[in-house]
Write a structure and sequence with these properties.
Blueprint: H1 7-21, H2 25-53, H3 71-76, E1 83-84, E2 102-103, H4 107-115, E3 125-129, H5 135-140, E4 147-151, H6 155-165, H7 169-174, E5 175-178, E6 192-196, H8 202-218, E7 223-231, H9 243-246, E8 252-261, H10 264-269, E9 276-284
Parallel strand pairs: 3-4, 3-6, 4-5, 6-7
Antiparallel strand pairs: 1-2, 7-9, 8-9
Helix pairs in contact: 1-2
Amino acid sequence: MKYRPIPPLLMLRRFFRSIEEQHGLWGAFVFSWSRITQSLKNHGLGGTFERAFVKAPAAPVIPAAPLPQHSFDSLHGTNTEGMFSTAELHAVSLSALCATGYLGSPPSTLRQALAALPIQHEEFCFIDLGCGKGRALLVAAEFPFRHVFGVELVVELASAAQENVLLNPLWKERISIINQDATKLTFPDGPLVLYFYNPFYDRIMRRFLANLERELRGSPREVILVFADIYPNQPNDGPHRYQHVIDPLPAFRKISDTTYSLSEDEAAAEPSRCTVSRFVVYSANVKS
């Protein structure tokens, strides 16, 4: 079933987000109940029903201070800017209920992380799960990966990524955009580098890793998983975004945890106002 931004699905999306951000199912119920009672108080039963099932209210737009154009887009003529929720966009799967949003990877830190991987890049395919507008793909294409794939379930973002790829004949030859649910992906043959820039919530990550394990049991090969995150300043030694999901799985072993600072010009154009990226790298060891 596809995801369309209709009020019931928007309400369900908010509930799933609450589970992640309000400390579990019970916290989500408490948060949702408080919203319902407040809506009943402010809008009555009819107004609450209309807002939930007929026409969802528009979220208030808070104007942000203007940022300079990102240096990557200035250099290449691409459009990879922005930071926004994908709630109002269309997707090929209801997994969009647990998608996070869009924010392009900082090229300066991603280049350092990819260069530091303990691999022969030409032996590997690179796959960005939740590629958005494709900025990480264009950076990965600077390395001699066998091929670069972007997987994106949001229709509008996949189209934007494809438009960016078509701007350069070399990108067009080396990069493929797949508008698909990442949990249903059939992986290409050979060694893989899988890249994650906070694309979805835990329930989708668990399904993705389960699908990956099944695939690798039938077709063992070397797989590197790169989990990227971004911080206002140097992160502490605490857990990374998906650590509690992946660490209990014996098939995956952490091999590095490194931080890099954004270049000065990228930090000035970063919508999140963050200045440091953290890259946690795992290897997969799944036997047939």
